[in-house]
Amino acid sequence: MRSFKLITAISCFLIGGSPFASAAIKAPAAPSNLAVKALGVNAFQVSWKDNSKNETGWEIRVSLKGGTPQRFVLVPTPNITTYTVMTNELAGKELVFQMTAYNGVAGQENLSKLTPTVTVRALSPNKFDKPTMLQAKAIDDGRIQLTWVDNATSEGGYQIETRLGTKKWEVLGGLGAGIKFKIITSGYLPSETRSFRVRAFKADKFTPYSNVATATTKAFRAPSSLVVTALREGAFSFKWNDRSAVESGFEIESKVGSGSFQSLGTVAANATTTGSVSGFTPSSSHQFRVRAFRLVGTVRTYSGFSNVISIQSTPLAPPATLAGSPASDSSATLTWVDKSARETGYEILYRVVGTTPFASAFAAANAQTFTVGNLASATTYEFRVSAVVNGFFGNRVASSSYKSVQVRTQEGFVGSFNPPILAGSSFLYPLQVSLPSALTGLTVTGLPAGLTFNSSNGTITGILTTAGAYTATLTATFGDGSTATRSLILKSISPSPAVVQSFAAVSVPIATPKTVSVAGKFSDPDTASAARVTTTLGTFDIILFPYSAPQTVDNFLDYTDAGEYDNVFFHRSPPDFVVQGGGYKYTAASGFTTVNKFVRVLPNEPGLSNVRGTVAMAKMGGQPDSATSEFFINRRNNAANLDVQNGGFTVFGRVPDAGMVVVDQINALPVYNYEITVGTETMALTDVPVNAASAPETLDPTQLVKITSVDAAPILTYEVLSQNTAVATASLTGTDITITAVATGNTTIEVKAIDLDGNTVTQNIAVTVP
Predict the structure, then answer these.
(1) How much is the pLDDT for 533?
(2) Tell me: the pLDDT tens digits for 140-168?
(3) 163, exposed or middle or buried, with CB in 10 Å at 0-12, 13-18, 19+?
(4) Which whole-number Å values give the CA distances from 296 to 208, 253, 293, 299, 751, in the listed order?
(5) 105 Cβ partners below 8 Å, 6+ apart?
C-alpha cells in the first residue's frame, strides 16, 4: 500500500506541567506581539514575534481568567512564530495566555522575560458540524493541495481520506483543529487522479464527511533553466530548477559535434547543482541537457528534457617557465613547470631556426623535463612545449604553447648516419665534424666484418661480407675536453637472391623419374620472413624485419597466428599519407568488434625510416611504448615526421613495389568520418576509405576494404625449364623438381629463384639419360 504524508502536522497537549530549574547560561531575548485566536471550544492559535537568535524552544503558559498562567507546554522547536494549543472543552470560558523563550536542555531551561498576558474567550456554543467547501488542486506532478471550511468549534481534529478511481477509501492522515485549512499532501504519481474527503472528530465521535473533491497531478515535470558554467581545463558545473516532486534523480547528457547525446551519469533526487565535472575534451564545443527520472521497480521512466546549452570548454593550462640547454652535439634538454592537471602528455615542437616545418616529440603526463635527440650538431633550434590530451597519433587537443626558447647544440658530428650500403660492394664513409679545427681525436667501434676505420684520414672503408643491420659507435674529442658520440646505422640488403649450394649432376633412367629438391640451394639475404595479406581489393606481401625490430615482428606474427587480422578493415586512410588497419573488424554475423589485444609491444623499436612502402606500428600519442595491434603502411616518405614523432614509429617491414599498387588503390578511395558501435560503445573513426564512387554519409559495411586473411608468404618462388625437352622434361611441385627422361642423351635443367621484389638468380642441373 502506498504511503502518503501531510506537509503540515500539529501536536496537541492538555493543560498541566510543572516549573523547571534554569541553567546558568545567557537567556534568550523575550518574544513580543503575543496574539491568541480562539479556533473552537478547545483550540487556540498562538502567534508571536521571534526576537531571539539563540532559543531552543518556547514555553507557553495558560490559566483560566482570574488565575496566574502556568506552564502549559514546552515547544522544543526554535525559529517558529505560531503554534496551536489544544485544551479540554471550555466553551465560553476566558483563558489567559503568556509565553517566554528558552534555551538549554530539558530540565535546565534558561527562560527569557515573560510577554504581557493576553486574554481570549473560547468559542461557544458547542458546534460539531462537518467541514464544507473541500477543494483539491494539483501543485505539481506528485503533490495536491487541500482546502476546506471548519464548521466545528469543539473538534479535536480532522481525518483526511483519499482513493484512486473507485478503489477503497484510505486514511491519509489527521490534523488538529482549525477554522480554515490549506494543506499540501504528497506521494502521488504523475498524471494520477485522486479523490478526497474529510471529516472532523473528537474523542471517538466523527461528523459526516465533507463533499468529495478530485484533482489530477501534473505530468512528470522536466527540469528547467539549465545553466552550464565552463571551469578550468575542460570541466563544467551544472545548475537547474527542480520542477518535480517525484523524481528518483536526474540524468545529465552531453553531445559533441554532430554525434548523438550520451549520458554523463546521474545525481540524486532534489539536487539542483553539481560540483566540477571533468573529463571533457578541452577547447571544443559541447551541448548539454538534463532530465528527471523515476524508478518504477527497476525500470526508469523519464521526464522531458530541459533546455539545451551549447558551450565551449576551456583549454588546457599551458606549461610555464620554459628553459633549454644543450645536452650533447645531438640533443637538447628542456625544462618547464607543469600547470595542467589533465594532460596525458606534452608535445614538443622543434625546428632549426630560420626554417618553416616543425618536427615533434612527446613527453609523458606530469613531465617537467625532456631531452630531444637526433639533432644536428652546432645548430640552433627553436623549441615550443604544449600540454596535450591525446588519442592515436594525429588526434589530440593541445594547450596554447608557452613562449619558444632557442638552444644551440654542442660541436660534434655532421652528415648522414644511415648511409646506403650493399653486401659485397665497396663502401666508403668519411667522418665529418662541425668544427674540424678543434678536433683532437676520432674513434669508431662496433664495425661489422669487412669494414675498417682509418684514423689518419677519418674514413670507414671495406666490403661488407654479410647483409644485415649493424650499429657502429662514433666518438669525437675536441680541444676543450668535450666529446660527441653518434650511432652509425648500417642496414644492408642484397639486390637479388643468392646461390647457396650448386646442384649435383643427376642420371635419370628412362621410365624412372627422379626428384631433386631446391631446398638449401638458394637464399634471399634481405628477407628472413614475410606475410601475405589478402584483401577485398587484392593481395600484397610484407617483408618483415626481425633483425631490426624483433619484438615488434614477434608481436605482429602473434596476431597473425591467432587469426586476429581476419575480417579487419582499413579504418584510416588520409590521402597521400598512410593506410591504417588492425583495430576493428566487421562481419555480418557479429557486426563491428575490436581486435582482441595482446600484450603491448615493449619497448618501442625505432631505427628504420618511415619511407614509402614501409610498415610501422600505430600507438598512443605521447606514449612511445604503447603499440598493440594497429599498423599502418606509409603511402609516401613520412620520415621527416614519423621518424622523430613520439619516440619514432617502429618500422617492422616493407611492402614490395608490386604490393604497393594495392595499397595505392586503397589510399585513392574516397574517405569519410563515421561513428561505429562496438557493443554499447560508440567510436568515432576519421578518414575511413570506402570502395565506392563517393563516400556515403551513412556507412555501408559492405563497402569497407577488409583483410580476409594474413598468412606466411614464401620467401622465394621457383621456375624450372629443360633446355632440351627431347631428352628430359622437368616439373615443379612445391620445392621438389621432378625430372622425367624422354630419350638417351644429355641436357640441363635451368632453375630460377625469384624473391618477393621480383629479383632472380639461376643455376643449372646437369642431366644425363643413359
Answers:
(1) 97
(2) 999 999 999 988 888 888 999 999 988 99
(3) middle
(4) 37, 21, 10, 5, 81
(5) 23
What is residue 494's predicted lDDT score, i.e. its pLDDT? 62
* Cα(135)–Cα(153) distance, integer angstroms: 21
Sign of the Cα torsion 654, 657, 662, 663 reads: positive
Distances (CA, A) of 151 to 91, 127, 129: 15, 7, 5
d(CA 426, CA 274): 74
Count the helix, strand and coil residues of the chain and give each as a percent rounded to the nearest 5.
5, 50, 45
Is residue 5 within 8 Å of residue 173, measured between CB atoms?
yes
Which contacts qualify for 670-675: CB closer than 8 Å, 24 or more apart? 670/694, 670/695, 671/573, 671/574, 671/575, 671/695, 672/696, 672/697, 672/699, 674/699, 675/259
Distance CA 400, CA 509 (A): 83
Q: How far is Cα 571 from Cα 429, in angstroms, rounded to an integer?
A: 43
The answer to whether 737 and 754 have CB atoms below 8 angstroms apart is no
Output the CA torsion sign for 456, 461, 465, 469. Answer: positive
The kind and range of the H/E element at 303 are strand 299-305
- Report the C-alpha gap between 30 and 339 in whole angstroms: 57
Q: What is the pLDDT of residue 179?
A: 65
d(CA 485, CA 413): 8
Burial of 584 per CB tally in 10 Å (0-12, 13-18, 19+): buried
**DSSP annotation string for 16-30:** -----PPPSSPPPPP
Give the list of residues 6+ apart from residue 326 with CB closer than 8 angstroms, or none: 332, 333, 407, 408, 409, 410
Distance from C-alpha of 189 to C-alpha of 167, rounded to nearest angstrom: 16
**267 touches 253 (CB < 8 A):** no
DSSP secondary-structure letter at 313?
A: P
User: Integer distance in angstroms from the first to the last C-alpha of the chain?
Assistant: 109
* Distance, CA of 415 to CA of 433 (rounded, Å): 8
Q: Which amino acid is at 45?
A: Q
Residue 601: what pLDDT?
65
Q: β-pairing, 506-507 with 760-769?
A: parallel
Grouping H, G, I as helix, E, B as strand and the rest as coil, residue 661 is helix
Q: Are 531 and 539 in contact (CB under 8 A)?
A: no
Residues with Cβ within 8 Å of 148's Cβ and at least 6 positions away in sequence, in order, are: 131, 132, 133, 134, 135, 180, 181, 198, 210
Residue matched to cell numbers 504523475: 190
Spatial separation of the C-alpha atoms in residues 731 and 192, rounded to whole Å? 90
Q: Cell digits for 258?
A: 554532430
CA distance 354 to 373: 19
Rounded to an integer, what distance in angstroms lies between the CA atom of residue 258 and that of residue 7? Answer: 47
Contact at 8 Å (CB) between 71 and 19?
A: yes
What is d(CA 121, CA 38) in angstroms, rounded to the nearest whole number? 7
Instruction: Measure Cα distances from 589 to 450, 586, 705 in Å.
Output: 58, 9, 17
What's the rounded Cα separation, in Å, for the pair 570 and 580?
6
Region of 726 (left: φ > 0; alpha: ψ -120 to 50; beta: rest) is: alpha
Residue 598's pLDDT is 84
Q: Which residues of the chain have pLDDT under 50?
A: 1-23, 391-395
The grid coordinates listed for 728 are: 628430359
pTM: 0.52
pLDDT of residue 3: 40
